[in-house]
Design a protein that fits this description.
Layout lengths: L1 H17 L4 E4 L2 H4 L18 H5 L10 H14 L11 H10 L3 E7 L6 H9 L2 H10 E7 L3 H10 L6 E7 L4 E9 L4 H71 L2 H9 L8 E7 L5 E7 L4 H11 L7 E5 L4 E3 L16 E8 L1
Helix pairs in contact: 1-9, 7-9
Length: about 350
């Protein structure tokens, strides 16, 4: 017995020094697949009702959690109704309740025939100190180690002695995190001390992970909302641009129809005469159309682009201006050059080259 007490203290000390989960345990497939509705008790305000009182009630449906009732019946028959609140439902259901309450699960495997079980149940598990501490800080689940889910959990944990207790936390996938386990006899004060240390150390780690997960969910939600708002704003701007473009095209067509052939001939006749500071630019379009326009020699190449854009001609998208011979590109790098410095004064011929 002294060796078992030292083992419990040693395990608790290692958990205290490491401050991490002791190990991960994969759950049996039938336990994972057995997740169904909660049966029987389900709430803490029925905590001290003896098991026999439930047997007097005829359930409307068959009790699926018969193994859990078997544990409660066996336990209360020998040790009375004052004990930690054990949820009378399946393991996965109780684990989900613990996760929803942001608490760890206290698991107890009951083996009545083992020599240390009676003293542990009577003096430790049913003591007022342990009952109040477990009910306040844990979601408890118990089962007979010789049948049902209790037998499966015993095969999973493989305890070397009884009584056996463990502190469990949900983990991703088909596994659980074993934060602490205790085997053999242990006093109420020692049990509470180990559980308290586990809650303080592991609670920070799991609480921090849960907080990070919740913060990530909130951040993802905020990002989606910002992206949706940006998309709607962009959509509105695009619609306004399209509307302005349509209006601009309509205006350009009206203006173009108002230009008479006489005016066009007059522009050709006046090409490159009189004003020595004037620069005449002939612009050829991919469809064969030509336009001539007069600029000041101090105007910049960008002025030619603005003039072309103001025409609102259909089918003109991204483009650049190129002189045919010798070939020279008047693109983004030349936008700020004057027509005189760029070699287009007093007259120049440019071809609109689509990109």
């Amino acid at each position: 017995m002294a060796a078992m007490l030292r083992e419990n203290r040693r395990s608790a000390g290692e958990a205290s020094r490491n401050g991490i989960v002791q190990r991960m345990v994969n759950l049996p497939r039938n336990i994972i697949g057995g997740f169904s509705r909660a049966m029987g008790i389900g709430r803490r305000n029925q905590h001290h009702l003896p098991y026999s009182s439930f047997l007097l009630q005829e359930p409307e449906e068959p009790i699926v959690g018969a193994e859990e009732w078997a544990f409660l019946g066996s336990f209360e028959q020998q040790y009375g109704s004052y004990h930690p609140f054990f949820y009378a439902c399946q393991f996965m259901e109780t684990l989900k309740l613990a996760e929803d309450d942001h608490k760890f699960m206290f698991l107890y495997l009951h083996s009545p025939e083992r020599p240390f079980t009676p003293s542990f149940c009577r003096d430790t598990l049913c003591s007022e100190l342990v009952v109040q501490f477990l009910d306040a800080n844990f979601v408890c689940w118990g089962a007979l180690a010789s049948r049902g889910e209790g037998l499966q959990m015993a095969a999973t944990f493989r305890p070397t002695s009884f009584p056996f207790c463990a502190v469990i936390a949900p983990a991703p996938g088909d596994s659980i995190a074993v934060l602490q386990q205790m085997q053999g006899p242990i006093s109420p004060a020692e049990l509470v001390e180990i559980l308290q240390r586990t809650v303080e150390e592991q609670g920070l780690a799991f609480g921090g992970a849960r907080a990070k997960q919740e913060e990530k969910i909130k951040a993802d939600r905020r990002l989606r909302e910002e992206q949706d708002a940006a998309y709607l704003a962009s959509l509105k701007i695009d619609k306004e641009k399209e509307k302005l473009k349509i209006n601009h095209k309509q205006y350009g067509k009206v203006k173009e129809s108002a230009i008479t052939k006489e005016t066009q001939h007059k522009e050709v006749a006046n090409f490159g005469v009189k004003d020595p500071q004037a620069t005449q630019i002939l612009i050829r379009f991919p469809n064969g159309e030509r336009r001539e326009q007069s600029f000041a020699s101090t105007d910049k190449v960008q002025s030619i682009y603005r003039y072309i854009d103001s025409l609102g001609l259909p089918g003109i998208g991204n483009y650049r201006l190129v002189s045919s011979f010798p070939r020279k590109v008047y693109g983004v790098d030349q936008m700020g050059m004057t027509l005189k410095d760029s070699g287009l004064h007093p007259r120049g011929s440019l071809f609109l080259e689509p990109l």
